[in-house]
Amino acid sequence: MYFEGTVAVQDNAGQDKKSRKWIIAAVVAGVLVVGGGIGAAFATGMVGPSAGDQPATATASATPSVSAAPVSITTTPADGAVEVNPASMPTVTATNATIKKVSLKPETGGETVDGVLSADAATWTADEPLVFNAKYAMDVVLIDQAGKESTRSQTFETVKPANEANAFMYPQNASVVGVGQPIEINFSEPVTNKDAVEQAIKITSTSGQTGAFHWITDNKVRYRPEAFWAPNSAITVDMQLFGVDFGNGMIGNFNETRTFNTHNTRLAVVDNATKTMQVFIDGQLVRTFPVTLGEPTWPSPSGYQVVVSQHEKLPFRAESIGLKPGDPDYYEPFDASWASRLTNSGVFVHQALDGAVGALGRINVSHGCVGMSAEGAKYFYDTFEPGDVVQVLNTEAGPVSVDDGFGDWNVPWDQYAGQP
User: Fold this and answer.
1) How far, in Å, CA of 380 to CA of 307, rounded?
2) Would you call 358 helix, strand, or coil by DSSP?
3) Would you state the pLDDT for residue 420?
4) Catalytic residue positions, numbered
5) CATH 2.40.440.10 domain locations along the chain
6) Which CATH number applies to 1-51+71-159: 2.60.40.3780, 2.40.50.140, 3.30.43.10, 3.90.230.10?
7) DSSP code string of 227-273
8) CATH 2.60.40.3780-classified regions of the chain
9) How far apart, in whole angstroms, are the C-alpha atoms of residue 400 and residue 299?
10) Which residues have C-beta within 8 Å of that of residue 36, sequence separation ≥ 6?
11) What's CA 190's distance to the chain center, in Å?
12) What CA–CA distance (Å, rounded) separates 65 from 56?
């Protein structure tokens, strides 16, 4: 904990040195340490006159000397402050003086911070942000009421790397995705000031669609509109997170704007009742393929699923879904062809093994995946991309959860947008 103070100094010029009295008033403020992080300091501090600014004692001169009122400055942040938010704009206010010049820059070197002086030259305000992890030196040149020049100097330190917070967004900038792709932002630190973070992120689309944030965890937030994104539209995400307090003393360290696009509408409807996949492009049925889904002990999840990633070849291991040799449902390792991931838990659209080809369109034999012929799996791989939508109907399992891949579209809109 550190203390910040306001110190005022008064000089009784009519008394000699021995009887001269100093009156010191101090106001102290503490900074609370929360959850191991140090809160940013924004208190003000006032620095009184130096010894060189004391009015001169009377002399035998025939011309009396000019007596000036004591000079002081009030600053934000205060002298010696630490963990200062670099987005804060330091200020200096002079009392009984005008400000001639302010020099503010990192002690280790760097650009001087620009600022603006008020019309009466009594207040200076920085007009550009600071940098993280820097000790700043501030030198203020003052002119008192008698025209005498003096300098006040002080320092403060900005937020250290341990209290910086970053974020990473998907989809990538300039990417093209399907109309079902929610926006996902992952934060390097837990966010407890969720309202502040949401207000710092502005999302617009050329289709004019608006949406809502939905927090998966304190480190992950999603955003989607009520209905799928309009095809062939552009979505811009403007993240102005520099200086935003995430909570627990963690401060956002960047501003960034990203734009991604959607392509045309591509939807695959998989129906367990008919054991088929129907492919719709821009609302028109273009292909139908037989499929096999999850057997009764491993039913395929229902509802909307979004293509997450695609792999021409991908190793499949029973251990990844909790099976071990000797288990009744264990299968030998193999490399799946034309595999398109739908969930984090291991549901894919992929080419069925040779032994399962006879089940296509007839019975379910998979562990939850959508098995297709070689032709069908490659067609899906070539036609669909991340963000495109698969809708699974009439299975024994419930819909994919919001945190298992991109199950966002399975959450009713009022619940999604109205998250407490």
Assistant:
1) 11
2) helix
3) 85
4) 350, 369
5) 266-414
6) 2.60.40.3780
7) SPPPTT-EEEEEEE-TT-EEETTEEE--EEEEEEEE-S-EEEEEETT
8) 1-51+71-159
9) 12
10) 248
11) 10
12) 7
DSSP lists the bridge partners of residue 126 as 115
Pick the CATH number of 162-262 from 3.40.50.150, 2.60.120.200, 2.60.40.3710, 4.10.520.10: 2.60.40.3710
Q: Which of the 8 DSSP states describes residue 374?
A: H
**Token duo for residue 356:** 């399962």
Give the HSE-up count for residue 328: Cα atoms under 13 Å, Cβ half-sphere: 2
CA distance 306 to 27: 59
Residues 346-377: tens digit of each pLDDT: 999 999 999 999 999 999 999 999 999 999 99
| Residue % of the chain over a pLDDT of 90 | 83
Q: What is the pLDDT of residues 37-47, one digit of tens each?
A: 333 333 445 55
Strands (E), 274-412: 276-281, 284-290, 303-306, 309-316, 334-341, 348-351, 370-372, 389-393
SS3 354: helix
Cα R_g (the chain), whole angstroms: 33
- The phi and psi torsions of 118 (rounded to 5 degrees) equal -65, 165
| E strand or H helix at 211 | strand 211-217
Q: Where in the chain is the domain with CATH 2.60.40.3710?
A: 162-262
State residue 133's pLDDT score.
97
Query: What residues have CB less than 8 Å from 208, skipping those under 6 apart?
Result: none
- pTM of this prediction exceeds 0.90: no
The amino acid sitting at 285 is L
Q: Which is it for the CA torsion 392, 395, 401, 403, positive or negative?
A: negative
Taking the alpha carbons of 241, 413, 262, 380 in that order, is the dihedral positive or negative?
Answer: positive
Q: Residue type at 324?
A: K
CATH number of 266-414: 2.40.440.10
User: Helix or strand or coil: residue 165?
Assistant: strand
- Burial (CB count within 10 angstroms: exposed 0-12, middle 13-18, buried 19+), residue 175: middle
